[in-house]
Amino acid sequence: MANYSTNEFRSGLKVMLEKEPCSILENEFVKPGKGQAFSRVKLRNLKTGRVLEKTFKSGESLEAADVMDTDMQYLYNDGDFWYFMEPETFEQHQADEKAVGEASQWLREQDVCVVTLYNGAPLSVTPPNHVDLEIVETDPGLRGDTATGGTKPAILSTGAVIKVPLFLEQNEVVRVDTRTGEYLGRAKD
Amino acid sequence: MECEWRAAIDRPTLEYRARVMQMIRTFLSSRGVLEVDVPALGRHAVTDPHIDSIATGGFSTEGFLQSSPEFYMKRLLASGSGDIFSLGKAFRAGETGPRHNVEFTLLEWYRVAWDEHQLMAELADLVTHLWPEVGSLTLSYGEAFEQHLQINPHTASLAQLRLMAVAQGAERWHDESRANCLDVLFSLCVEPLLPRGLVFLYDYPACQAALSQLYQNREGQQVSRRFEVYLNNLELANGYFELTDAIEQRRRFDDDLAVRIASDKPPVAQDERLLQALEAGLPSCAGVALGVDRLIMQLLEIPTIDLTMPFNWARR
To answer: A17: which chain B residues are within 8 Å (Cβ-Cβ)?
Structure first.
């Protein structure tokens, strides 16, 4: 793989650090007037999600990580693995629980997700920012109560539990922000 | 994107910038310091291991854009100019970022027969003239370093400094020089925690003497008569009780070149005319260089240097 020098570091760049794939979050140029220039870099370890801060001398380089974000359609889950398909090539990839992680509670068959491949294998899965999911279980709705701002828990078809307004009923389809787990509104069909 | 031809700053900022330049000139002129113009495109580059000059060429213009007016000003001082200042452009290759622009405006001045403490006091007067409410604090580099890192930077072993640098996320610092370790520790652990306002740090480590004289401080440690000035945690100025000894100057050039070679940087020819000036006699003096764009950043609370100038590096 190619190497990236500190002056090419920018947010989003995928590099290898201590044999782990990382994504650069921030790169700050530090240079005392008479002193050595260096880069103060914030990186996220793509396997663990941990954020690290490292200091590199200007001109040092890191190996590029073979990491690619690819849009894929979520197909199904067989109990052990989640299966995704590249829409262009129909190539299928199986992702394990570690790669899917929290995303599993938002995955609806047919939805297009971003699957991050590391050396060709799924490393992580990012669901769409907004998903429409059916309420499978919640307390009966309080008719007309659209103003009090109260909420109640609701279980969605994927198993996710979110807070919804009191007026919603079972079998209604709601839109959720997967980054925060917040209810956004009734799904508009 | 479609407006890249446009200046990056508005009329009030342009006016403020012009006024700061005017006030600097009036302040120094009224104190008998003479404004001088020196070449921006010189014959030589500085030997500093960490400053890269921009080489020019073609049409018989081989030379270097000057990273500071220092060498020409010292030749003027040795020629008998007396107190002088220069307010002009300086250039440093590869330096771009929120606090750096390759081309920047540098104020540099020299006071004959003064020492660094007298010059620090004058710099405080100048900044106070521009910003009357600014507070000011003076302490030694060693005190500031020890306050935040609990070790004495002059007496700590190199092994200890390397360990501390590595602990700051600089894993590959385990075989770095003393000067580089001090720089990384200072930049990460001291500079961000300095008090707001003007902070003067004097008695820099001997290994970072640059072009200042060395001496023994009260604790008997060998330190340099170099000072740095910070304004709201931003490095603003760097000054010296100037080295006047030509033999020692040549030795420093040689040391710089050795560091450059060790770090695969192109060697730089020594400025023989500067050395001749020192041999002829540079009067005892103190000098300081101040980043004017950074001063404007702090005076106007502008977050990044590119918004202090009409055409920054990206927009040029």
So the answer is: none
In the predicted model, what is the mean pLDDT of residues B2-13? 89
pLDDT above 70 covers a percentage of chain B that reads 99
Instruction: Return d(Cα B288, Cα B124) in angstroms, integer.
Output: 12
| Cβ–Cβ contact A7 with B under 8 A | yes
Whether B95 maps to a domain, the answer reads yes
Number of domains in chain A: 3
> Angle of helix B141-149 relative to helix B178-185, nearest 10 degrees?
70
pLDDT tens-digit series, residues A37-54 = 999 999 999 888 899 999
Cα gap B225→B243, rounded to integer Å:
9
B58's CB contacts (< 8 A; 6+ apart) are: none
DSSP, collapsed to helix, strand or coil, labels residue B108 as: strand
List B210's β-bridge partners, or say none: none
> What was the pLDDT predicted at A147?
64
pLDDT score of B270: 94
Q: Does residue B250 sit within a domain?
A: yes
| Subunit contact B170:A55, Cβ cutoff 8 A | yes
C-alpha span between A56 and B169 (Å, rounded): 8
Q: State whether the Cα torsion A130-A132-A135-A139 is positive or negative.
A: positive
Cα(B73)–Cα(B85) distance, integer angstroms: 8
The CATH number of the domain where A144 resides is what?
A: 2.40.50.140
| CATH code for position A7 | 2.30.30.30
Size of interface A-B (CB pairs under 8 A): 67
Same domain, A19 and A43: yes
Confidence category of residue B120, pLDDT binned at 50, 70, 90: very high
Q: Which residues have a Cβ under 8 Å from the Cβ of B117 and sit 6 or more positions away?
A: B202
A31 vs B179: CB contact, 8 Å cut-off? no
Q: pLDDT grade, residue A79 (50/70/90)?
A: confident
The confidence band for B13, taking pLDDT boundaries of 50, 70 and 90, is very high
Dist CA B301 CA A72 (whole Å)? 46
Q: Look at A29 and B228 and tell me if their CB atoms are within 8 Å.
A: no
